[in-house]
């Protein structure tokens, strides 16, 4: 089978547990692109964070960011797809999270909004200290998020909820899922991702394939967690990481090695190189 596109998740997949891209992964991706294969970075992260890693692997790639709510080419100003959460739904979500005393942050394509520097916002804050200005994530502390979104005309593509108490996370998921205008998935243990209705990595990947005139049979998708399932379901060939959750492994055509053992490179070498 001649493959034309590889969609690769970032966290837990392309990135190892130190949040780095191994040299073997970089080399395999470069060799695949030399064979004419389009590589697509597909992540739940904010677009500006994903751009850093897209540049790092040294390929010109469209980026599926925010779990598919925002798709753009990083090397030029070309937004392919965007589906922000509707303002009324956004306010209702924030109100629910505040009532349940949960940590959350939200973002557009380049601005990261948070009430408290905890969990991922603290991680990005520490990340910024080590980066050149052009690679920093623009973090804005918002004391009253509800008032902020009422006054500011911003496009929020994704809200992330995090808590160490899994029972609180699951109870909040049940409550939030009653709103049929939003999607709620998990991309990591103890977290929830909230997007506009119908948004998923799979639907974004399908739109990219239509744009590039690539059939699903010519696509490989590689991922490790629940938010990757939709793109694995769309792709003709689906690959689960060795460190992936059981439901992803059960669904996948192949299970490769872990993210700490060059699983991405190994499956590209096997199927493409």
UniProtKB/TrEMBL annotation:
Any one GO molecular-function label of the UniProt entry: magnesium ion binding
Listed InterPro entries: Cof, HAD-like_sf, HAD-SF_hydro_IIB, HAD_sf
Pfam families, alphabetized: Hydrolase_3
GO cellular component labels: cytosol
Protein name: HAD family phosphatase
UniProt organism field: Senegalia massiliensis
């Amino acid at each position: 089978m001649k493959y034309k596109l590889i969609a690769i998740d970032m966290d837990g997949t392309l990135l190892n547990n130190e949040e780095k891209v191994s040299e073997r992964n970089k080399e395999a991706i470069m060799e695949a692109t030399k064979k004419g294969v389009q590589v697509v970075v597909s992540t739940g992260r904010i677009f500006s964070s994903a751009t850093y890693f897209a540049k790092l692997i040294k390929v010109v790639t469209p980026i599926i960011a925010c779990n598919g709510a925002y798709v753009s080419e990083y090397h030029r100003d070309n937004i392919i797809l965007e589906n922000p959460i509707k303002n009324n739904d956004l306010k209702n979500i924030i109100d629910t999270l505040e009532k349940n005393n949960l940590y959350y942050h939200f973002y557009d394509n380049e601005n990261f909004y948070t009430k408290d520097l905890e969990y991922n916002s603290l991680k990005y804050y520490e990340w910024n200290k080590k980066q050149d200005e052009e690679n920093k994530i623009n973090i804005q502390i918002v004391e009253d998020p509800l008032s902020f979104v009422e006054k500011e005309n911003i496009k929020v593509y994704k809200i992330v909820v995090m808590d160490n108490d899994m029972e609180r996370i699951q109870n909040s998921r049940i409550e939030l899922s009653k709103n049929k205008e939003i999607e709620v998935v998990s991309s990591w243990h103890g977290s929830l991702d909230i997007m506009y209705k119908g948004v998923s990595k799979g639907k974004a990947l399908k739109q990219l394939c239509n744009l590039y005139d690539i059939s699903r049979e010519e696509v490989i998708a590689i991922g490790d967690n629940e938010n990757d399932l939709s793109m694995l379901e769309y792709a003709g060939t689906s690959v689960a990481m060795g460190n992936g959750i059981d439901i992803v492994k059960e669904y996948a055509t192949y299970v490769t090695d872990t993210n700490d053992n060059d699983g991405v490179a190994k499956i590209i070498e096997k199927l493409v190189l």
